[in-house]
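Worked Example 4.2. Consider the chain below.
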Amino acid sequence: MAGEGPSTASLGKPQAISPIPTNRNLLCRIRTHVNTETGEVGCPDQGPDEQRYIIYRNVFDKVIENATAYKYILTSIKKEYEENINILRKGKEDSLFLQRKVKSMAFEPMTYLAYKKRATQLRNKIDLIKQNTAGLEAQLQAVRNSRHVQKEQTEETLPPQEDIFHITSIPEVGTLWPEILDADDPSAINEPAYLLEYVERFNKLFDDKQYKEAAIHVANCPRGILHNLEIMERFKAVTEYEGHISPLLQFFEAVMSSFSAVRHSPKAKMSLEGVECALKQNRLDLVIHWVIQQRVTCCEELGDLIYNYGDTELRRMDTCMGLAQIVYDKCNVPKKAALCMCMCGQISGAMAYIHDCKKFSLDDYLFLLNKCPNAELIQCLTHEWNGKPAVLSTGIAVLWLISNDHEETGFHLLKEICDSGQDAMQQTILNDVNCTLENWQEIADKCNTHNHNALADSIFTVLTSQEGGTVITITTEADNDGAKLIEHIFL
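Applying the procedure from the previous section yields the following structure tokens:
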């Protein structure tokens, strides 16, 4: 039917495409341009090349501009080619990226081990810096607490040079187990077997009586596995040895020297045993080093040990008091820390410590009076100090002193009060809110008992005036020794 479209026969035939009109002059210029450009940029004769692609793409654009009738179709063809070329280019880039990624992943295990090793080294450095910082702070505190801590560490304190035990330099945890850090797979190392071999080596040295070498082996042991009480008891049991240094002291020097490697100090019992061993051999220099460098675990018993040593070695007392104070302060025994300052004559420092601490009780103050019945200390405790009220009642202090084998100190304090002025005793008694009149009556009786009659009269006068009465003192001769009996009759 006419007008209904092309016939079936016509649809089945391919339509002829008109030839593209040629412009020989244009083709010659294009060919010359292509040859010139490819030659200048050095394009290879065969194979894909990015520069050749750019040259031909630009030439194709010129052809399209001159082929007006075929401009649309040529543009579409060019677009299709460029899209496929872009896909191929992106595929090549993705392929290169994946190749690099696969290569990088292949190196990840080695990189991980390198980073792990470096992290261990950095942690060791941080620990060392912290230890050095803590040591410097402890040294500074020791200087503040005692004027002679460093001065006492002289040739007189130290043993002869040939008697000093030198521990081999303790390696860091990066070098203790080199085969583990250098291995491609650290998990493949048989750690239990390694530790067992190390312990067996120690046993061999100890059984062969090579105690110094065994101690060095202890110092270098991985993870501090030989730093225990059982090993200590083995060294302690050795009574026959060569040289001046006992195997036990060699063991403790090893344990303390390896502090930076195992990153923890010995426990309290071992610390106590180590300090006791050093002091028995008069190695106060070691104790100074261990305490200041924080190589020991502080406890009250350790402080008592150092304190008592200073109490017997008077020429080293200030040093020992300074060290003991550091220990007491770290284990929170403030009354004994203050006592150490008082024993060194640092009364002002002790008072500042007492007021800053704010943890002292009446029993703590009486403890200080018992251990150090120093007149200056008593004065500071019972009077205002630096604008702060007195921390201890005068009456309580006197009563405690004269009732606990410090009679003369207590009576001396009362005499100073009487000598201060006519109303000094009255003001002391009336202002002492913590000591009752009955307590003062007991003090007066003690004064009579020890023949301090004038002090007793002064106290009785104040007491009776408070009751609204008067006092009559009757003195009579008594026994052959000429002692006087005094009676106070209240009216």
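Residues 393-491 form one domain. The beta strands are 471-477, 484-490. Compare this with Example 4.1 before moving on.
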